[in-house]
Design brief:
Length: about 250
C-alpha cells in the first residue's frame, strides 16, 4: 500500500513578507469618516462640505490603491465612503430645495387668506393673522373676536393702527374692484429657533376713471414650529409695505 503523501505548499518568501507588511490607505479611512459624517449635511447647508470632501477623498483613495496595488489596501472602505458621500451630496440639496419650495407655498397660501379677509372688509380677521398663532382667536367666531377687542384696549388700539396703515386703508377702500396677485418671492431665510422669514411681492390692480392702475406691495411673513409640530404663520407687523423703488420690480 502506497503511503499517503502530505500536501506541500510552497510559499514565496517575498509574498509572505508583502502580506505581513501590506499598508492600509489612510485616505480610504478618511473617506469613510467623511462619508459617515456626511449625514450631517441634511441638518445645515454649511455642512455640505462634508460629502464633497468625502467624495473627493474616496476618489483619491481608489486611484492611489489601484496605482499601488497590492501593496496598499482599503478599497472597500474607500468605495463605502465614496458612495455615502455621493448619496448625501444629492440628498442634502434636494431636501433643502423641497423645504424652501414648501415654505414658499405655505407663505402664498397664508397671504391669500390675509388678502381675502381685507377684500371681504374684515380687517379684524386680517389683523388676527398679524398676531402670533398662540394669541390668535378662532377666526370663525366674529362675536368672540369683537368682544376681545372691546375688552382689550391695547389690542383695540392695535386694530385701529392696522386699519389706518396706508396700504391696508387703500386695500379696504378699493376692495370691491382691486385684484391682488402674487408677483414674486423677494427673500427667504432661516431665523434662529426653527423659524423662517419669507418676503413676497404682490401686485394690486384696480380701475380708476376707466383706466387700470397697478401698484406693488411687499408682505413679510414669519413661520414657526408650534408645540404640536405644525407650522404657524403670522404677518410681521405692521403690515404690507408699498413698493416705492420701481427699479426693484422686474
Amino acid at each position: 500500500m502506497r503511503p499517503g503523501v502530505p500536501d506541500v505548499h510552497i510559499t514565496d518568501p517575498q509574498d509572505s513578507e508583502l502580506a505581513a507588511y501590506r499598508a492600509f490607505s489612510g485616505l480610504a479611512l478618511a473617506a469613510l469618516v467623511c462619508g459617515l459624517l456626511a449625514a450631517l449635511a441634511l441638518v445645515d447647508p454649511l455642512l455640505w462640505a462634508l460629502p464633497v470632501a468625502g467624495a473627493a477623498l474616496g476618489w483619491m483613495a481608489l486611484r492611489r490603491i489601484k496605482k499601488q496595488w497590492p501593496a496598499l489596501s482599503g478599497r472597500s472602505l474607500a468605495w463605502l465612503g465614496l458612495v455615502l458621500s455621493l448619496v448625501f451630496l444629492v440628498a442634502a440639496p434636494t431636501q433643502w430645495l423641497v423645504y424652501r419650495w414648501q415654505v414658499r407655498a405655505e407663505a402664498r397660501e397664508f397671504a391669500d387668506m390675509y388678502f381675502k379677509y381685507l377684500a371681504k372688509g374684515e380687517p379684524q380677521k386680517a389683523f388676527q393673522l398679524a398676531l402670533a398663532p398662540q394669541q390668535r382667536l378662532p377666526l370663525r367666531d366674529d362675536a368672540q373676536i369683537w368682544g376681545f377687542f372691546r375688552n382689550n384696549q391695547k389690542m383695540r388700539q392695535g386694530l385701529e393702527n392696522f386699519v389706518g396703515w396706508p396700504v391696508v386703508k387703500t386695500l379696504l377702500a378699493k376692495r370691491h374692484e382691486a385684484i391682488v396677485r402674487f408677483y414674486e418671492t423677494i427673500d427667504q431665510e432661516g431665523v434662529e429657533g426653527d423659524r423662517d422669514m419669507v418676503k413676497q411681492r404682490y401686485a394690486v390692480t384696480y380701475e380708476e376713471g376707466g383706466e387700470k392702475k397697478t401698484f406693488f406691495i411687499d408682505v413679510r411673513m414669519m413661520r414657526q414650529v408650534l408645540p404640536d409640530h405644525t407650522a404657524g404663520w403670522f404677518v410681521v407687523s405692521p403690515g404690507p409695505e408699498l413698493v416705492t423703488d420701481k427699479s426693484s420690480i422686474r
